[in-house]
Amino acid sequence: MSDFAALWAEIVAVGRSADGGYRRYALTPPELTLRDWFRGQAGRRGMTVTEDGNGNLFAWCGEPWAPGTVLTGSHFDSVPGGGGYDGPLGIVSAFLALDRIASPRNLAIGAFVEEEGGRFGVPCLGSRLMTGAITPARAAALTDRDGITFGEALGSTPTGQISGISHLSAFVELHIEQGRALDVPVGVGSAIWPHGRWRMEFAGAGDHAGTTRMTDRRDPMLTFAHTVLAANEEARLIGAHATVGRVQAEPNATNAIPSMVRGWLDARAADTATLDRLLESVIKRATERAGRDGTELSVVAESVTDEVAFDTELARRLSALLGDAPILPTGAGHDAGVMSSHVPTAMLFVRNPTGVSHAPAEGASNEDCEAGVEALARVLESLT
Ligand code: HGY
Ligand code: MN
Ligand code: MN
Ligand code: MN
User: Fold this and answer.
1) Which ligand is nearest to the CA of 210?
2) Measured distance CA(319)–CA(187) in Å, rounded
3) What pTM value is reported for the model?
4) How far apart are CA 84 and CA 72, in angstroms?
5) Long-range contacts of range 125-128, CB-CB < 8 Å, 24 or more positions apart?
6) Other CB atoms closer than 10 Å to residue 220's CB: what's the count?
7) Is 86 annotated as a binding residue?
8) 3-state secondary structure (DSSP) of residue 363
9) ipTM of this predicted complex?
10) Annotation-wise, does 195 bind a ligand?
């Protein structure tokens, strides 16, 4: 059994639910189990483990935050019903890559908390905290679906910005590729599409499903439905990506016209101008429809990530180091996107034959994952 397959076998079942998907919400038992696994792996290698007070975990070869340290790593948390590779692949590969470097020094592995935003709603929460992109107060107050705040889950108010970041000489995140764009085992990241998530609230008049005439209704579900269709049409028109994967209705009763429908729009595009156009057109059409339905619409941006262009010279250098590995953008957000505004940052992508991600079918072959480990080892060696 290959190094990768053996280590992967230790964690691949953690957090898997009956439908074959994963539910590894940040700071809940499955993710905490993987944190313990991380500490064990670090201990086996004589690495020092630290936490940054934001929920991020680090293992160090050498002095924590020593100047010139190269950090690699990713996240353990998953979306609900997600795949097993998105996140953990980067951390398992990091430990194995270190094993292939003779006397590794000035190297560290990070496990960032709440990258998916699946529990507390803001993606890359851990890397945003440590880089000062979100305040400890706002992060601490974020709540999950059970009303538990991030501060409560963490057990303290987050520390916030970590000064040691300025000592890092590079950050490299290895990640499963998620867009059907890689037909060789390993690629190098060039950019992350600008993207964000907007909470849309449609307010109407709750009423009886059986006795209220259609002409007397102010039904927010109708406006919501038209908005979902509009987002889909507008995205197709301009080559952007629009998704509404999460919706809540109040009172959520079969025989009551809803008084409120809340839906989250995940919108992404290859450039900011196109993303802005998408938002503008969707909100315009939703507002027009609300006027017709007698409902009210409010839209709140919950998190927006600007376009990220990774260090071009670094990407080219790594591509050459890896035998002219393809350099490609991604429509998925990553902690590397947040880190790139503070540290020279690179991403490595491992081929995902189906391209499916954030779903149980997500996967990569052991051979390609081994190639990813080998590539990461060479990249880390070249950077330290
Ligand atoms: O949603 C994303 O793009 C990432 O997987 N957090
Ligand atoms: Mn993801
Ligand atoms: Mn990820
Ligand atoms: Mn009744």
Assistant:
1) 4
2) 8
3) 0.95
4) 19
5) 125/26, 125/55, 125/150, 126/54, 126/55, 126/56, 126/75, 126/335, 127/56, 127/335, 127/338, 127/339, 128/338
6) 29
7) yes
8) coil
9) 0.89
10) no
Residues 279-338 have pLDDT tens digits of 999 999 999 999 999 999 999 999 999 999 999 999 999 999 999 999 999 999 999 999
Nearest CA to ligand 1 atom 4: 333
Closest by CA to 263, choosing from 244, 278, 280, is 244
Annotated binding residue at 175? Answer: yes
Element (H or E) spanning 241, and its range? strand 241-250
Report the atom number in ligand 1 closest to the C-alpha of 117: 6
Q: How far is the CA of 320 from the centre of ligand 3 (A)?
A: 25
* Strand 256-257 relative to strand 296-305, pairing: unpaired
Q: In the numeric block, which tokens belong to residue 332?
A: 């998925």
Taking the CA of residue 357 as reference, the ligand 1 atom at the shortest distance is 5
**DSSP annotation string for 181-216:** ---SSEEEEEEE--EEEEEEEEE---EETTTS-GGG
Task: Give tens-digit pLDDT for 126-170.
Answer: 999 999 999 999 999 999 999 999 999 999 999 999 999 999 999
Q: Bridge-partner residues for 74, per DSSP?
A: 111
Pairwise CA distance, residues 135 & 318, whole Å = 34
Kindly tell me the sign of the dihedral angle through the C-alpha atoms of 293, 206, 198, 230. negative
Domains and CATH numbers, the chain: 3-193+307-383 (3.40.630.10), 195-305 (3.30.70.360)
Which protein residues are within 6 Å of ligand 1, measured from CB?
Answer: 115-116, 123, 332-333
